[in-house]
Amino acid sequence: MVNQNNWKEVFELLDEWAVPGFTFDYEEIEDPPHEIVLKIKKWAVEMCGKNEPVPFRVVPDGENGICAEYREKDNCFKSIEFNKDGTIEVLEFKDHKLVNRYNMYV
To answer: What pTM was computed for the model?
Structure first.
């Protein structure tokens, strides 16, 4: 979990994950490919430069990808999924139901 007002924490986390040989300490979590870490770092730099909100957490998704997750007002939630195949998918939920799904390009 990251501080909601601090992109620096996101960059520090991603820098840690980008170190060659880094592995997560959980057996059920597969490490994301280095290319995916670099892609989400590029996205984070762009979002920070635009003064966009900081995700409330950045986590591995368990399938070799990384998710940036946002809690939004009115019981809404958004997940930006950086998938192992290089695609980026945005999932938007309201009241725990998927209401929108689309691809994003960085």
So the answer is: 0.85
